[in-house]
Amino acid sequence: MRSINYLAVISTLVLFLSCSLKNTGQSNTSEGSKKEINPRQIEKSDKIVWLSYDEAVELSRKKPKKIFVDVYTSWCGWCKRMDATTLQDPAIVDYMNEKFYAVKLNAESNKKVTYKGTEMTEQQLASRIFRASGYPTTVYLTPDEELLQPIPGYLDVDMLNKILHFYGDEHFKTTSWDRFSKSFNANE
Q: ∠ CA(150), CA(151), CA(152), 5° rounding?
């Protein structure tokens, strides 16, 4: 008599299906076209305006904002799910564009970026500096590229909204995460 490991079959099916979801991890500008990005246009967009790492740093020098980095891989099902759900939520989109410069960073890419004056690949930035070892990992930086926190794992709308407000409104400077998360009300 053969026994089937249904859990293994279901896990394989879920992984297969998640890999077929559309990947939206692209910068809004292409390699060949250097288009001037206006911070005011970002704040008025109805979708998250994804930038390259270098574009976000350059904009932050001109008009300081924190930098949000979504570290992903092309094969990550949870990354694709977060792109399709959490990162499409209108409240997340509005707050992200208002308070952060948003970056998609491919943890397996050899594309060159500059972190604090040092050139490295996106892969090196993700693993060495941001300490991303699972995907997705969201990373929060000050306007001058100081690492505030990498947070591994899929984040639903409520959790990401809470984290964005914790850093975006600078509660992290005066309040512990535990205290903030217990008192946070998204409707206020």
A: 115
Give the domain 23-29+36-183 fold: Glutaredoxin (3.40.30)
Question: What confidence tens digit (pLDDT) does each residue in 96-142 have?
Answer: 999 999 999 999 999 999 999 999 999 999 999 999 999 999 999 99
Determine the Cα angle at 14 with ends 133 and 74, to 5°.
45
Counting Cβ atoms within 10 Å, is residue 59 exposed (0-12), middle (13-18) or buried (19+)? buried
Pairing of strands 66-72, 112-115: unpaired
Interatomic CA distance for residues 163 and 136, integer angstroms: 15
Residue 18: closest CA among 88, 61, 78, 69: 78
Domain boundaries, the chain: 23-29+36-183
